[in-house]
Amino acid sequence: MSEGAVDDLVARAERALADVGRDPNTALAEADAVVAAIPRPLAPEQVRAVVTAHRAAGLALRELSEIEEAEARLRRAVRLADNRRLPDVAAEARMTLAFTLMERGRMLAALRAVDAGLQHVNGLQEARLLTTRALVLQRSGRSADAAVEYEQALPTLRRYDDRVWEARLLNNRSMLAAMSGRTADAVDDLHDARNSYLADGKATDAADCLFNIGYVFGMSGDVTRALEYFDAAETEWADLERPECWAGRAEVMLRAGLAADAVSCARRSIAGLSQRGWHGLEVEARLMLALTLLSVSPPAPDEAEEELAAVRALLVHQVRPEWRALADYATTKAALARPGAAASATTAAAVAEVLAAAGWRSYAADIRLAAARALLAAGDGESARAALMPLALATRTRELDVRGRAWLARALLVDIDHDGPHGHTGSQLAYLRRAWGAIDEHRRTVGGTELRAGAAAHASAAVDLALAKAVALGSPATVFDWCERGRAAVLRFPPAHPPDDAGLAGALARLRWAENAHDQSRLSGDADAAAGAMRYQAEREVIRLARQRPSSPFWHHVVTADDIAAESMGNTFLMFFQHEDRFRSVTVMDGSTHLHDLAAVDEVNRRISAQVFELRRAATDFGASWASRGSSFLRASTALDDLLLKPTAELRGDRPLVVCPVGALARVAWSTLPSCRGRAVSVIPSASVWHAARRSPATDGPVVAAHGPGLPEASAELDDVLEAHGGGVLLRGGDATVSRVLEACGVASVLHLAAHGRLRRDNPLFSSLTLSDGQLTGHDLETCNRVPPTVVLSACDSGRGSTIVAEETLGLAWTLLSLGSRSVVAPLSPVPDTESREVMREFHARLGLS
After folding, report:
1. Spatial separation of the C-alpha atoms in residues 480 and 457, rounded to whole Å
2. In this structure, are residues 307 and 293 in contact, taking their beta carbons and an 8 Å threshold?
3. H or E element: which one contains 9?
4. What's the CA gap between 135 and 119, in Å, rounded?
5. With left for phi above 0 and alpha for psi between -120 and 50, is residue 581 left, alpha or beta?
6. For the segment 700-750, what is each residue's pLDDT rounded down to a tens digit?
7. What share of the chain is helix, strand, coil (3-state, %, to 5)?
8. What pTM, to 2 d.p., does this model score?
9. Alpha carbon of 753 to those of 516, 707, 790, 844: distances in Å?
10. Gap between the Cα atoms of 643 and 645, Å rounded
11. Bridge pairing between strands 790-794 and 750-754
12. DSSP assignment, residue 66?
């Protein structure tokens, strides 16, 4: 074979190696062609060509999920180079083999392969092997050793101007910086790596850097930027599958409190990794799934244990002590979720130490708190104190989630150190305010409303403990303040409004189209799976874009009982809350604040269900005479009144009443209770939102009335509305579109919408009103730069909300209030068209006179 022909085959093998990331099938075919062309490689250049081809084939087979065949091809490459006594060529083959072994989870074998290569090379090849060895050490959890070897390799790579390998090193090293909390250093490394990859034409590797930047931001708590970079990476990857990256998404979603989404991401990662045989990465994805299963509500410890069993089986042949510690964390957390958890808490301290050393400080903090609670429940204060002390020292850390838990640990230590739950309550509440403040600071960095709702879950432990202390202290003002902290987690952070969010607007338009197609398929009696899938994908796109929106720099101040007392102006303010198994309330009136114990939660919930049933029955003319229906509804309302309002002496009289309910109490038709007759009743989601709305200036503008399809009486209702106000803007038929209504939001002083409503309990921001061209959702409303001061939703169920987290409720009415509406009038149950017209005529007649 001529020298030129051999040179050509070497070049073809190197092209195949370079093409693996772009087109593994083509790379494999080209590599096989080179091997076939040199059946008996003897000369050094012939050996180099075949070994390079085997390396390309091994990497291509890895991409194509043929992991065992990939390892076999790489071992053939090593044997050929060894047999022909070409140590430098063998070192390159061992480097690729080590990478494949690492992804299969065979860490010791990977290290042996690298070490064998290091015995025979120096200079540039030595630096590349050291970079590979550092990555194996890093994946094994030996972060300190990995950092040393990265530092040793980097100067040599730069001296030889090896930009690709320098980029690989920086990409890998960035994760060490991120784990140690050095976010800026990690991002700098990744930007430098990306620039090098782009300069060398390695687009896939450059996209990987984008994803890693997102992961680093996610780990630092900046979820909005994390999702932005994740999506940018997916765009650059195009159709290329990256199953390992879904585990990273899962971890960021879990940090944001979106456990259900984290479960979905982790499952997707596992499906791809197990199919490809990448067992090293599969361990990480299965661990993440176990952790998310323990974070959903309610937790799923049995399913988590199944995943952990699979993790332990995979780890048998993987020397990864820190990952074993993370598995121990998940195992301990699952055990702590069961009765009699104190026995499992004894191992938590050792697990926490290993986790903290590996950089998993958030998990270390979490397991210490979980163990301490179990030990306190078992009466073992000394062991609980030992678990909490290391965490209590971390109140100055830069990681806000750890800082919040550290202050919570200090609060728990107060009970232990002073032998009882009632001593030194003042200092304990001060610590809990610090814990809540750290979590609140973190929430300000989170973008979409849904993300903030998820992140709010982290505040619930501090709120629950502080409420218990405030109740024991008997301080109604303190109880009020902590109730409001639980409610104000999301609604006081309105989303920012970019000048033109065309991407989100387009996604919402596509969702309306998909919703219409899905509804048509259901109405035709032939449910179309494709229409359902299209609707699902459209919703996911809206969620993705909404999560990227930053928070507004302006947020409502969390008000106190003193603020409400100063602002009450003749109102009686009633804040409900749930403590243990009872509903309680705080009243604020004429500068005084009172605490009341009301009734058992189960009894109140039964009475609420009865009232809701009788209200629907009365409204829909079902099964009995009006006298009978009205009498049954009155009895149900009176029973609720006896439990919730009559025990409170200061509620007697006819003063206006402001009600801030919690949980199931949001379903109560408050104005129908006997104690509320003859008085103005306002129902609010949060005292902070109400306080801000009262202080917002009144604005002039037209009355705008619009109605959707399927309401025969709505047209006449809208005529009555405009007549009551002496005119206005009427949107009916084809004019009542989502875009026209959103435009009206920007100018109207009163917006009246008569349309069928839908409540989405799984995601209340998709609760909607049906207009002529589709659904107007909470996500649509959040795109408005302004909402009308007064909004009337003359639609079934449009006033109802769904509790998302802690004591906070989201829905269409609540969303409008959070965005700045002073008043939202909406029904809690279906109202027939005829009765709705009469009610609305009277309401607007009085509103027009005010």
Report:
1. 19
2. yes
3. helix 3-19
4. 19
5. alpha
6. 788 898 888 877 778 888 888 888 888 888 888 888 888 888 888 888 888
7. 65, 10, 25
8. 0.66
9. 20, 6, 11, 13
10. 6
11. parallel
12. -
